[in-house]
């Protein structure tokens, strides 16, 4: 079993989600999740970000880049669409998005 498959399975167990529930929560097909769990394929980056967001783990941990034994929980659940947008931005874009988000939070 690949590191990605092992960590995906671990994160799913920790989140108490079945493949069907994860598919519904992420919008990713059950067949894709099944293929990842069986080590047939590894998810592409955008899918890893979406999975990590729903499972509340670090995408780097999910991919095996972080060698710690336990998943690193994300501080707060992040909408997969927002995470995907964040990944498309460079450092300057991150700063602009954070500035706008702070203004939006200040209005509420």
Task: Outline the structure in words.
It is a single chain. The chain is mostly helical. It has a domain at 3-77: lambda repressor-like DNA-binding domains (434 Repressor (Amino-terminal Domain)). Helices cover 66% and strands 0% of the residues. It has 7 helices and no strands. It has helices at 3-15, 19-26, 30-37, 45-55, 59-63, 80-88, 91-107. The chain is elongated and about 45 Å long. The termini are far apart. The mean pLDDT is 84.
Spell out the key features of this protein.
single chain, 434 Repressor (Amino-terminal Domain), Lambda_DNA-bd_dom_sf, DNA-binding, Cro/C1-type_HTH, transcription
| SS field, number of helical segments | 7
The percent of residues in helical segments reads: 55-70%
Under CATH, the homologous superfamily of the domain at 3-77 reads lambda repressor-like DNA-binding domains
Largest sheet: none
Task: Note the overall shape.
Answer: elongated
Task: List the secondary-structure elements in sequence, H or E.
Answer: HHHHHHH
Number of strands: 0
CATH topology of the domain at 3-77: 434 Repressor (Amino-terminal Domain)
Termini separation comes to: 47 Å
Poorly predicted parts: none
> CATH top level of the domain at 3-77?
Mainly Alpha
Give the DSSP E fraction (strand runs of 2 or more residues): under 5%
- The second-level CATH architecture of the domain at 3-77 is Orthogonal Bundle
Domain HTH cro/C1-type: 8-62
InterPro entries: Cro/C1-type_HTH (IPR001387), Lambda_DNA-bd_dom_sf (IPR010982)
Keywords: DNA-binding, Transcription, Transcription regulation
Protein name: Helix-turn-helix domain-containing protein
């Amino acid at each position: 079993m690949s590191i990605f498959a092992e960590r995906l399975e671990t994160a799913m167990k920790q989140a108490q989600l079945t493949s069907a529930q994860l598919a519904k929560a992420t919008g990713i097909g059950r067949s894709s999740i099944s293929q990842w769990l069986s080590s047939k394929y590894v998810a592409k980056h955008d899918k890893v970000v979406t999975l990590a967001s729903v499972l509340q783990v670090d995408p780097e941990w999910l991919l095996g880049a972080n060698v710690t034994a336990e998943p690193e929980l994300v501080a707060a659940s992040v909408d997969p669409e927002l995470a995907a947008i964040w990944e498309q931005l460079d450092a300057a874009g991150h700063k602009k998005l954070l500035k706008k988000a702070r203004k939006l939070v200040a209005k509420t």
